[in-house]
Amino acid sequence: MKITLIEPKSPGRHVYSSVNMPRLGLPILGTLLRQAGHQVRLIMGSRRDIRLSEITTADLICISTTTSTVVEAYHLADFACDQGKPVIMGGAHVSFMAEEALEHCNYVCRGEADLTFLPLVSCIERGELPVDIPGVSFRRDDTIIHNPAADWVDMNRVPFPDLSLFSGLKMSTYPVMTSRGCPFDCTFCSVTQMFGRKYRCRETEALLEELKQYRGKQVFFVDDNFTANPRRTKELLRAMIAQDIKPSWWCTQVRTDAARDEELLQLMYDSNCRMVFVGMESVNPETLKSYNKKQEVEDIVYCIERFHQLGIMVHGMFVFGADEDNLQTIEETLDFALKNRIDTVQFLILTPLPGTKTFFDLEEE
Description:
By secondary structure, the chain is of the alpha/beta class. The protein contains 14 helices and 15 strands. Helices cover 34% and strands 20% of the residues. Helix 9 packs parallel to helix 10.
């Protein structure tokens, strides 16, 4: 089949706007589709960036969406359905809001779709309903069917994403995924519901093979918590250094506790890590407790200090809006960022993302 996969752009400017970097869900699925013999086109953009023919000439439209892109995603899905095209939607938002999504599409892939997506496409190709495919939601007559959830994916069964499938997308920084899941469980974060608390890693040799194509380029390790298993992270970094398979510059997301492992810090620097994105969340101790962050303000200060001592820049991410916050919290956060010379900062509004404890608490209240 001719299959168009679309990653809608987020509205407005955000932390990834300048690097034009896609999420890896669709490139992985596109790679699997092409290996199975389908004609695949990947598009990252809004309605203005998509040619009409890229939808009208396709046999199947697939759209991946987060909560911030879901309004645009539903517009695209509505248009495709109006053209008589079957539409599959996936991603974090629709995984938790499948019935909402089915007002705009034919099928929803909930959770990780790496191993269930091809069977679903095959069912559509044969004109059959996906009654036995885990993690799929769909309508049968006037009834919505939610198949049982799929098992967590073995990361080593997932292929390298072929980013060349994106038409005309120029990237300055290349995304690489080494793991999924996070052992922590912050109240505002949907990662553990989407990918689980078990930390699943790809094999080092497979990662080195993927990284060879990015030697001398800039890489973002897109893991939600790159250093959640320090032993495994050190193994990868040592191998990158020993085999000289190093990006010219790389960055990633870590927790403050990464700064307390001296060997890990040195390996990060020696393998060309030059920036870390740190979930600081708040300088209000009570807010940190309410977020179930399991860190203290002193941990944040130490983290910034240690990374700076090594010459690694720090991007600090804060979330305003907990019940424990007030105007003073915002002013204290600004003072804290300036005093500790955080290189770049990101201030976010506490948002009840579907699937999070915050969402369910507010819904109940």
